Amino acid sequence: MTGPLSAILGFGLFGVFCLAFTEKILPIPPSHVLLLFLGMTAAPDSSTLAILLAVTTLASFAGCLVWYGVGRRIGFDRADRLIERAGRYVFLRPATYRKLGQAYRRNHVRVSLLAQFIPTVRNYLPIAAGALGLPVLPFAMATLLGATIWNASFLLTGYLLRGSGQDSFTVGLRIIVIVVALETVFMLALRYGPAWRRRIRLALG
C-alpha cells in the first residue's frame, strides 16, 4: 500500500490533492488511513501540516461537489437506483443511504455536516443532496466545515504519532478500529433508533 502512495506523494502537493480527491470518489484507501499516513510521513513540521490540511480539505470538498453535481444531473430516482446497484461494492447499504436521504429533507445543513464524520457515507451522501436539489451554498459550507474537522483530526493524530516514540502502526490501527466501531454504533442507532424510541415512549406511558 505504501509503495503506490509514496510514488504519488513524489508529485508533492499535487499528488496529495489527487490522493485526497480520489479517495472522495472511491474510498480506497479509507480517508482515515490515508490522512493518518500523510500526517505521519508527509508533515515534518507544523507549517507543512497546515498546508496538507488546506490541500486535503480542498480536495475532499471538490470531490463532494462532484458527487453533488452528479446527483443534480441524474435526479433522485436514478441516484437511488445507482446506490442500490453499486452501494454494496463501497460498503454503503442502500437502506442507510435512504434513511440519511430522508433526514436530509428535515435538516440538510446538520446532516451535511454530520455526514462528513461517517466513513463511506461522507463520500456518497452528497449524491442525495444533489438529487434532492438542496441549496448548494448551505450544503457547501456545512460540507467544508465537516471536511476540515475530519481531516484535521487524523492529520494531527498522525503528526503527533510521528514523534511520540510509540509504534505508529499499532496506535494507528487502534484508532482505525475505534473509528469503525463508532461508525457501527451510528449505523445501528440510525437503523434501530426510531423503534427503540417508540418502545421507550410506550413503556413510559
Automatic annotation (TrEMBL):
<feature type="domain" description="VTT">
    <location>
        <begin position="30"/>
        <end position="159"/>
    </location>
</feature>
<keyword id="KW-0472">Membrane</keyword>
<dbReference type="Pfam" id="PF09335">
    <property type="entry name" value="VTT_dom"/>
</dbReference>
<protein>
    <submittedName>
        <fullName>DedA family protein</fullName>
    </submittedName>
</protein>
<feature type="transmembrane region" description="Helical">
    <location>
        <begin position="124"/>
        <end position="151"/>
    </location>
</feature>
<dbReference type="InterPro" id="IPR032816">
    <property type="entry name" value="VTT_dom"/>
</dbReference>
<keyword id="KW-1003">Cell membrane</keyword>
<feature type="transmembrane region" description="Helical">
    <location>
        <begin position="171"/>
        <end position="192"/>
    </location>
</feature>
<keyword id="KW-0812">Transmembrane</keyword>
<dbReference type="InterPro" id="IPR051311">
    <property type="entry name" value="DedA_domain"/>
</dbReference>
<keyword id="KW-1133">Transmembrane helix</keyword>
<feature type="transmembrane region" description="Helical">
    <location>
        <begin position="46"/>
        <end position="68"/>
    </location>
</feature>
